Structures are given as structure tokens and as C-alpha cells.
Amino acid sequence: MRLAARLGFPYSAPSTPGGVEPVAAPKRTGVDYHSAWARRFPARWSRVVLLESVMRPAMRVLANPDRVGLDRLADLAARKQPVIFAANHNSHIDTPLVLTSLPEPWRHHTFVGAAADYFFRTRMTGAVASLTLNAVPIERTKVSRRSAHHAAALIDEGWSMLIFPEGGRSPDGWGQPFRGGAAYLSLRCGVPVVPVHIGGSGRVLAKGKRAPARAATTVTFGAPLVPGGDEDSRRFGARLERAVAALADEAATDWYSARLRAHHGTTPVLGGPATTSWRRAWARGDHRRPRGSARRRSGPTWPDLT
Amino acid sequence: MPRPGFVLEVDRSTPPILFHHGEGFRLTRLPPGRTRVIYPPEPVAALRDPDGAVRHALLNPLGDSDPLPALLRPGMKLTIAFDDISLPLPQMRAPDVRQRVIEAVLDLAADAGVDDVHLIAALALHRRMTEAELRHAVGDRVYDAFAPSGRLYNHDAEDPEGMALLGTTEQGEEVEINRRAAESDLLVYVNINLVAMDGGWKSTATGLASYRSLRHHHNVRTMRHSRSFMDQHHSELHSSNWRMGKVLRDSGVRIFQIETTLNTDTFPKPFDFLMKREWEWGARDRATFVATSKALERTPPRLARQIFQSIRSPHAMSSVQAGEVQAVHRVTTENVYRQQLVAVEGQTDILTMGLPYICPYNVNSIMNPILVMCLGLGYFFNLYRGRPLVREGGVLIMSHPTPWEFHPVHHPSYIDFFEQVLADTTDPVEIEKRYETSFAEDEWYRHLYRTSYAYHGVHPFYMWYWGAHALEHLGGVIVVGGNARAVRRLGFKPASTMNDALEMASDVVGADGSITHLHNPPILLADVT
Questions:
Q1: Domains (ranges, CATH) in chain A?
Q2: Interchain contact, B49 vs A75, CB within 8 Å
Q3: Per the CB 3.0–4.6 Å rule, which of B312, B346, B351, B466 could disulfide with B390?
Q4: Residue B20's closest CA among B300, B266, B207?
Q5: Which domain holds residue B230?
Q6: What CATH code is carried by the domain that includes residue B183?
Q7: Among all residues of chain A, which has the CA nearest to that of B103?
Q8: Is B279 inside a domain boundary?
Q9: Whole-number Å distance between alpha carbons of A262 and A302
Q10: What is the pLDDT of residue B188?
């Protein structure tokens, strides 16, 4: 590089003459990152190997996931229908955790909606995210027709999608309000949404932590949701959020108790109690976890309802 | 469009025909010119949205019944009973039909705010289901929600506090069923109708009953007057259950019946060739047959049994209906017939059949000689409507290894029945008269039934009675490839090959007796005219 710079043009890039408006370089980062190469051979096969031989054992060691509710997907699996998996988001390990939990035919045929401003900030990070997770940039700071169009086109091609409707990892372990992307794409593409609840991943690698710790996790798949005839994306999105909250309740208690509360509108909300920050943290229940312990907790995980 | 079943006349170009043979299969060439083979219909289409269909059935009941949500209210006592491990066969892939239906019922119950819910495996005098089996039947969600608090459990027909005598029929038959079910505000019964015999009033009057009640229809006289028990209008077994159903209704037990039917998509890959007609086997099917047959010949029986018992059938729900018991069962029976009936003209001198590795009473267990008899002479022989496939005085030839082997946990009373009772006599009437009560009231068998995983002490008797009609009807029974001592103990004749068996049968029916082979499973029901 230095030698090229010393040799000057044409061995290095030319400088722009003064008074001339430089030509804008085409953007290759953020939402403009082209990730199509990651869905072709050999990237696809590399990812299969990576998922099965690295991510899966790593998740087993780190998160020891208890995968619940896969039977709810049996009919969709038989029809090999593309779906949108919408999960709550606590940790960077959520994506590999869900990807390694997906059954066939989706496990190797799912792309991940990833924050364009975070994972695709540089071409290098974009390439890593695309290769390892089959990530596709999604604009989260503003409504972007381009990223939605791109995701919809992939779903129409038969790909399934993993999306975190909260738009980012939870800062405090409690859920954030769902954005409308998953519901919008479901309505636009006519595919069902599978609500997914991830419990315990915040204890493995919470936002702000650099090193992961071993902890037990639960991935609960819910019954597929299909938008009703008179449902717009806002109402469908709200239903999706309630479904994930009901799964959180189910994971923390039992299915029938959760159904009783869901039907009576008393399911604990994902966002946690509307109180001061320390009481929210206290209610989350992490203070009850023995420090440095990787033991599987026998009781409720997240959110803690006790 | 699935093809209907049909009857093939065997000629010289007909390939060898598949016979199930326990944990294995055989290809046997049958004599041309005098043999016909009855092939089952292909599986009917599965419901595209089974969960939607279940919900629709619950909201649109048949007969004189309100929709399920109208029957549910806060503070009520709700009991959900469901068929046990004997259905379906083989066990189906998850999610099981029962899980789908029970979750839909519970979802409505949750909507209505019903807190007092019990779930009972309606197993009558069958063995208790293990945790893994219950989990498979109802799903982890339901199991985890109810079992830890003792609200999901196996029916116990020998619990003196747990049974309620509701009355007697006009013929003096006592009706005693599970007390929790009897005293609930609503009993929801979740059924799987694999064959036409299942369902209707038999679900509750048999599944939740005690020996005191069951003995009125599980006896030699009833079985001999059930021709067949796959045809409820000519089945004394069903008449008795229907009389008991009337007593249940009159005594105020409110039942919401949910019945499901399955298609005959019975064997998953690589065993799906078992469902094809032999001349339609492709290269892969033939290679699979050869490979599996050769491998199974060299596989220890215990391992082979484990492999076969781990088969999970791709059965799919073909219909679901709910509401008043009789109205529901009428539609269910029609749907079973739609899948299984095959028109057959005339009876035969010799009926052949290959018995598979499984029957309703050896799921995750061993097919002992008594169960071989029950499957052949009880179930397969009775897969007819109209007249038996084989003429009176004809010969039944069945192919099965018939090992002298019993599961000591599941079938303890079978061992004693085989060693003591059958060593003395094989006459069902004599057996019933001399031995039944002592086995039925034996304290040790009662203890094992209640606390272990044993079939009730009287159960082997019922297996023998199940074949009583066939024993009376037939001129002889020959078992091909079976353990000779075990076969003789059953009162049958052993043969090494099908040709030997046909030769032996000619002593009874003459040299050129007509032969009919029942190509089963997948299950078929012969409509014999």
C-alpha cells in the first residue's frame, strides 16, 4: 500500500483537482450493501458447515437451549412454506440461537434482518454478517422502502426471514415496543409469522457485555399467525407482540396458565413494570442468580413473574 | 385422487406378494388361477388445515349439542378423556391428533376461564401409559401444565374410590365409569377412530369403565354375536355399549364427543414400499426391500423390535367431528368406511394374512403368542362387513414368527394364562367358565395394573375371547414361520412355508380350495357380498 502511494497514480488512486466536484463513490455499506453473493454457492455451503459444526456446538456449550414448541410448525414444515420468525431480542447470541434451533426446511434457508447501521457499517462487517448469518441490511432508524422491498423480494423467492421487531437488543433485559416490519412483510408477502420467545440469552451475553457467560436458555416457538382479513400491519403487529408476550408467560409458568391469562388480557407485558429503573431491574430477577454460576435454573427465567 | 382398493386375481404373471412377518417381511408366490389378493385403498387426502378443522368442529357440533364454548363456564368441573397408547398404530408422528384436539379444547376452556380441568387417559384395563407416552399423546405443553399438579393421569379401574356405579341397563349390565368423569359438569372425549370398531359410546362406556362393567360385553357370547365388531349394526359388542351409553345419558353425564379419523398413510420412508402394490415397486423400493430383509435376518430380535417400535407413522387427520355421541359417530364411521372399504365378492376357502410387528396391545412391547392369536383371529379375521372373508369350516393361514416370549412388565398375567390355562384348554367357553374370575380378582395382578405398567389380570382372557368367533367359524388355523411349540400351545398348526401350509389346508378344504390374501396393513375393511 505504501509503495503504491509512493509510486503515485496510476498505482494509487488519483487526487481530485481543485475546483472540481468529486464524483460520489457508490455506497456499498449500510442499507446499500449487496449481500446477494452470500446466498449463492460457495457461501451457502460454507454457512451450512459453519452453522452445523461451529455455531450449533457453541450454542450447546454456551446456552444449552431448551427448544420448545417445534411441533407447532409441523404443518408449515410439511408444506415447506416460507415464514417470518419474529423474536424478542436481548443478546447477540439470539440470532445463532434461533438459527440453530430452526427445524428443516428453514434452518439453511432463512435470512436475518440485521441493523444496516450496525452490522453493515463497513464492508468488512457486512461481509462477515452476510457470510455467517445470511444477514440482509434493514434500516431501523427510519422507514425505508428499499430494505422492505429487498426483504419482500427474498421472501417471494422462497426464503424465510428471522427478524427482531424490537429493532435492537434490550438495554435492560425487558422488552421494547415492537416495530411494524414483521407484520408489514407478512401482509405484503402473504406469509405467516411465527412468534418466537428467547429466554435467558441476556444472561449469556447482555448488551454492553464483552465476554459471554454460560447460562441456560429457552427458545419457544409459537403457533403461526396469519393476518386477519380486516387487520392492518399496526394491529397485526400488536397481536404479534401479545403472542410473544404469551410465549414468555408460557416459558415462565405453564401453557394452560398462560392461555388463561392471555384470554383475559392479563399476560405480563414484555416491557416489564412501568416503574423506576432499579425496580424494573429488581423485578427481572437476575439478582437471584448465583454469581458466576452456569447452573440451569429450575424456576422461571425471563420475564420473572414470581 | 387416491385409488380405491381392489381385488386382484392372481395369474402366472403376478409377482410374489408381500406378507408382513412380525419384525420382517416375506415375498411369497401364491398359486395362480385360484388366488385373489385384496389391496387396500390408497390414503385419502389429509385435511389441509387440521387445527382449523378441529376448531370448526368444536364451534359447529353435530346432533343435539351446543357449540363447545357455550358449554364452558367459570367454576365448572371439566374432564377431558382421551384414547390411550393402543391408538393409532403405529404411533403417529408428533404432533399427535390428541394433542391438536386437546389444545384446541383447552384454549376454549381458558377463554371461558375454566380452572378445574382434569385429563384422563381412558385406558380401561390396558396398561398405564408412561410419562414419555403421555407426553407424545398430549404434547409437552399440556403435560407440563397438568401432570405436575396431578391433573393429568391414567384411568384406574381398580380404584374403589375412583369409580362410580351409575346404574344398570335393561339387560342388567352394570355401568360403572371413572368417578371424576361421571361427576364432571362436562366430559369431553377425544377419540381416534383408526378402525370402525372404535368410538361412539364405546369410548366412554369401555375406555373409562371397570371390570365390573366390561365383563358384560367382553365375553365369549358377545364376541360370537358380533359379526363383525367392525360393523356396529351387527355387533353385540356395540349394542351392549350403546345400552350403557343410554344409562350414562340418563344418569346425567354430559358428554361432548370429538372423533377423528386418520388416513392410511401408515409407513414412513424407507418402509413406504410396504404401502405399494408389488408390481409398482421401483428400483429403490426393491433395493430397500432386499436390504432391509437381509439386514433384519441378521439383526437380533430385540434390536429389530426396537427399530420397528420406533417407527412413527405419517398418519394424517382426514376428518374431525364433534358434538352429540351418536350423531358424531355416524359421520366418523362413514369417513372410516370411505378410507378402508373394499368390495369383495364371495367367500374363500383359505384366507391368508401376514401379521405385522404391532397390535393395539404391544406398543413399545413384545408381540407374544396370545397377541398373535388376537391380531389374526380377533382383528384381521373381523375386518369384514357382511360375511366373513373365509367360509365356515375354511382355513386361516397367518404368517408370523410367534416367539415364545412375553414382556414381563406389561404382560405378567399373559405368562400365566399361556402356561396354565392354554396348557389345559383352548376352548373360550371353558376358559371363561373355569379361569376368568380367579385372574380378574387376583390381588397381585391388580397391584401390578395399578402401580406398575401391567395389563389387567383379565386382559389375556379378553384377547382370547376376541378370537372366539373365528375359532368357532374356522376349520383350522395354520401359522407359517412360527415357533412350533408356541403355535401348538395356541391350538394351531405350524408350517415352515406357505406351500406347506396350503398343502396342509387342502386336507380340510380340498385340493383346489380358493385362496384370498388380505394385503393388510395398511388397514382395509372387506365388504363381502
A1: 28-286 (3.40.1130.10)
A2: yes
A3: B351
A4: B266
A5: 50-262
A6: 3.40.50.11440
A7: A256
A8: no
A9: 17
A10: 98
